[in-house]
Write a structure and sequence with these properties.
The complex is a heterotrimer. Chain A is mainly alpha-helical. Chain A has six helices and no strands. The mean pLDDT of chain A is 90. The chains are: A mainly alpha, B mainly alpha, C mainly alpha.
């Protein structure tokens, strides 16, 4: 016969209903024995008070045992019924009832596979987050680098501007043009000089 | 009848047990067992029996009270009544421990892991958006650097051309 | 057998809460 351990009830009560009932059975049985013993003592005492009674203590003991046997039989039979009743209707948790600490099993039941998937998803998200953080570092580093490069390039441009300005400060608005005109003028001067030299030789 | 509280049911069942234990005809049994004594002192027998019944019932009832006291049984049973009352709408059999703790724990832990996943999702999305902005800024920065480089290059070439012409000028000037 | 049942049942009642406490602590620490 398979024993129902009533583990769910034990989870609620902190003891198994069967143990509780065993405790009650033993206690009740002890009381029955004690009271029977007291009855026997009282009867013996009464007998002492009755002159020349022929009933011996042994006989009384036999009567007690006989009555106890009857009571014990009835006691066990009734206790069996009481035990069934108590197990079925007092110390039991109906099959459709969930204990508060297990509410989560009902509100969002989660299978082990699903839970593993969830944990895997979390690990992936962690990885992704780390990648994003590294990306942010790399982007910030490049922005920093760009800042330096731009500063450098702007410095160079400023340098060229200053060159322009120097030219402008000395009357040449545009270096290149002035150089070109300078070269042309030089060439003209050279031609003139050549012509002069030729003329003088001729003379 | 489910409207009776468990405590009341327990008391009723114990009372019924006690009544039936000393139900009628057990006095006959008693007198039958103590027959000689009954013949000798019928009145005493009756009173001894009545005391037996009273004492037995009292001590059993005291025992029950003690057990209730000891295990705080009334409060526990009342709280069970409440739990059953709250759950009675639930028709089909409820969940029970599977015997595999790892398996049963999943549902208990799931809400916290779901929360962690949602938090991580939000943070990843936030970081991605932030990185997108940074990436845009980096691309814009690259374009600016390129433009500046082109400007510098153009100016550099102009000045180099200038330099070449300067050399030419010198060569012209030096020419014999 | 009875003690075993009570022992297992008690663990079923108490351990999820205790495990959750440390899981929550762990998740918080990871979060930080």
């Amino acid at each position: 016969m398979s024993v129902d351990p009533m583990a769910y009830e034990a989870q609620f009560f902190g003891f198994t209903p069967q143990t509780c009932l065993l405790r009650i059975y033993i206690a009740f049985q002890d009381h029955l024995f004690e009271v029977m013993q007291a009855v026997e003592q009282v009867i013996l005492k009464k007998l002492e008070g009755i002159p020349d009674s022929e009933i011996s203590p042994v006989q009384i003991r036999k009567c007690t045992e006989k009555f106890l046997c009857f009571m014990k039989g009835r006691f066990d039979n009734l206790f069996g019924k009481m035990e069934q009743l108590l197990l079925q209707s007092v110390l039991c948790i109906p099959p459709n009832i969930l204990l508060p600490e297990d509410k989560c099993q009902e509100t969002h039941p989660f299978s082990e596979e699903k839970f593993q998937l969830l944990k895997k998803e979390i690990e992936e998200l962690k990885g992704k987050y780390k990648v994003e953080l590294c990306t942010e570092q790399a982007l910030l580093a490049e922005l920093e680098e760009q800042k330096t490069v731009k500063a450098k390039l702007k410095e160079t441009l400023t340098f060229f501007d200053e060159l322009e300005n120097i030219g402008r400060d000395h009357g040449t608005s545009n270096f290149r043009e002035s150089l070109v005109s300078l070269v042309q003028n030089c060439r003209k001067l050279q031609n003139i000089r050549d012509n002069v030299e030729k003329q003088s030789k001729r003379l | 009848d489910r409207t009776i509280s468990r405590v009341k049911l327990l008391d009723t069942i114990v009372d019924t047990f006690l009544q039936k234990l000393v139900a009628p005809r057990s006095f006959e049994r008693f007198t039958n067992c103590y027959q000689h004594f009954q013949e000798l002192a019928p009145g005493v027998t009756r009173s001894v029996y009545d005391k037996f019944v009273a004492q037995l019932q009292t001590s059993i009832r005291e025992e029950i009270s003690e057990i209730k006291e000891e295990g705080n049984l009334e409060a526990v049973l009342n709280s069970l009544d409440k739990i059953v009352e709250e759950g009675k709408a639930h028709g089909e059999p409820a969940w029970r421990p599977s015997g595999i703790p790892e398996k049963d724990l999943c549902s208990a832990m799931a809400p916290y892991f779901l929360q962690q996943r949602d938090t991580l999702c939000r943070r990843v999305r936030k970081q991605e958006a932030k990185n997108q902005e940074l990436a845009d800024a980096v691309l814009a920065g690259r374009r600016q650097v390129e433009e500046l480089q082109q400007q510098v290059q153009a100016l550099q070439q102009t000045w180099q051309a200038l330099h070449r012409e300067q050399k030419e000028l010198l060569s012209v000037l030096r020419a014999p | 057998f009875d003690e075993l049942i009570v022992d297992v049942a008690t663990k079923r009642r108490q351990y999820p809460r205790r495990i959750l406490e440390s899981v929550i602590k762990t998740l918080k620490a990871q979060h930080e």
